[in-house]
Structure formats: C-alpha cells, structure tokens
Amino acid sequence: MLDALWGWPPPVLDPAGPFSAQVTTLAWALFGLGAVVTVVIVAALWAAIKGPSKWKQALGGERAIWIGGIAFPGVVLTALLVWGLTLTASLTEPIRGDEMRIRVTGEMWWFRVQYLDPDGNVVMQDANEIHIPVDTPVVLELESADVIHSFWVPHLSGKKDMIPGRRTFLRIEADRAGEFGGVCAEYCGGQHALMGFVAIAYEPADWVRWRDARLARLASGVQPSAAVARSTTTGGRSAAASQGRALFMDTGCAACHRVAGTEANGLAGPDLTHVGSRRSLGAGILPNHRGTMIGWIGDSQSIKPGNRMPSYDRLSAEELEAIAIWLELQE
Length: 331
Ligand SMILES: [Cu+2]
Prior knowledge:
Blueprint: H1 18-49, H2 53-59, H3 62-91, E1 100-107, E2 110-116, E3 122-127, E4 129-133, E5 138-144, E6 149-152, E7 159-162, E8 168-172, E9 178-184, E10 196-202, H4 204-220, H5 223-233, H6 238-250, H7 253-256, E11 280-281, E12 286-287, H8 290-303, H9 317-328
Parallel strand pairs: 1-5, 4-10
Antiparallel strand pairs: 1-2, 2-3, 5-8, 6-7, 6-9, 9-10, 11-12
Bound molecules: copper (II) ion.
C-alpha cells in the first residue's frame, strides 16, 4: 500500500529484482559522476582564473576550460546518456516470446489488471494489485482509459507512462517474495496522490497454487452461492450475505462493477471478483477489512473526493454491512 513507499531505505535504493537493480546502479552512477563532473569543472575554472602561475602555465589558462569544462563533461555525459538509453530500451522492450503478460490500464484513479495468456487473451481480471512469481520476468502492457498516468513499483522496475490510445511496455521482476508498493507517477487529476497499487511476489510454487485456486473458482462459476454456504460455517452470516448480494445487484453497484459468476457485469469501476482477498481498498489507500469496506461504500466521496463512485449514504448501517459481508466472501 501507499505507506509501503515511505520506508527506509527508500524503495528506489532498495531494489528487489534485476531491473530495479539496474535502475539503482544507473542512479548512483549519475549521482557520482555528476558530482565528479561538477568538481572537475570548478577545479578547471579555478586553475584558469586563480590557480598558481605554474598551473596556469601547464594548463595554459584556456586549455583548462577546454579539457575540464568541455571535453571531460562531454565524454562522461555522453557515456551516461548512451548507458541510460540502452537500459531504458531493454526495460521497455515489448513481448519477445513466452514471457508472462499482464495488462495494466490506468483509470482515474485506480488500476485495471488483466492477466493474459501467451496469445494475449484475458484469463483473469483484477484491480489495484498484481500477483507474480519470483525470478520470472513479467511484461506489463500499459494502457490508459482516460489521461496520462504512469506505472511505478520502485522495488521492481523503472517507471513508464500509460498513454491514451497507445500501448507501452515495462518489464518487472522480483527476486524475493514480498509485497511491494506502487503509485501512479504522472499527475492525472485531483486524486492522483491516492492512486496506489500493490505488487505481491510469491515463490513459484505458491504462485501456481494462487493461480490455480483463482482459475478453479472462476471455472466453477457458482462462487457466490458457495461463498454464502461457506459463511454459514463461519458464524451464520449467510442471511446477511444474501441480503448484501441482493443490495449489490439492486442499488446500482452491478452497473459499474463486475463480479465473475454473477449478473454483475459493469466495467466502469474495479473488478470485484476477488475483492475479499485484496490487500487494500480505494486503489491502495485503505487496508481491506469490514470497517474500511463499509466506510468506503457509504462515503467514498469523503475518503477520496471526486472519485468516480458515488457515496451510498442513503443505505442504512445494516445494509452497508450486509454488502460488505457479501463482498468479503468474494475472494
Ligand atoms: Cu496519476
């Protein structure tokens, strides 16, 4: 979540994968060589203007400026430019072969996530988080539904703009399991600062288990009733859950949100098929539990003013809780 970005060391200096490690190395090299160039230029100026006369003779006044102030910075900065461009070209290379593919679409102010098969067909849908296996390069296909956004998980890669009408690519890879926070890194309107994201990296076997569980759930196609049945065993909440389901379908939620296996098929908002297992709500800004779910549905306009979901303050506390209970079961 967003606070994961405020730790020490800052994530840009704490790479968790080969692509971000390259970016970090480049950043240190830019910083270090930038400092060297500055010192050399100042020294050349000093030698040219104020240096002892024997230095002036050796460097010939103007010659110091030509060497230290023009030739040296020219060579160093050109080398850094070539290195930087080569690196960014390799990070943003499109799909080559059988890499794992995930399409991420920036929307005001959240991220749509679609897992693709090798042919580019959508296999699973989600929002505001991606789940990846460690030591596996993943190619993200970045798109935008409205304005320019930018995708950035500093632990895992560089940042790349998401541009309307165009598809860009970004390679990410994790070398350790864990949760890595991300943000939109290009100002995109009022709630830009609250447009966050979580990347979750698993050991490969755990990732396969995670994926198979999701695919099995999707294939069963009956998860809501199964979930309600399951809730009976976890505290007799099935009445509330089925009331929540009915409210979800009848109060307009289903027009904007999709829950696979139900009649809810809206596309304007985040896919809620797996919202119960999400780490966060509101695009990375709230931890996900019953209280925040109720708060978000009842009053998302206070939490994230101007976001594209209306506050449901006309629903009673019981109704909000019933919807939250049903959504919790959508794992
Ligand atoms: Cu933004």
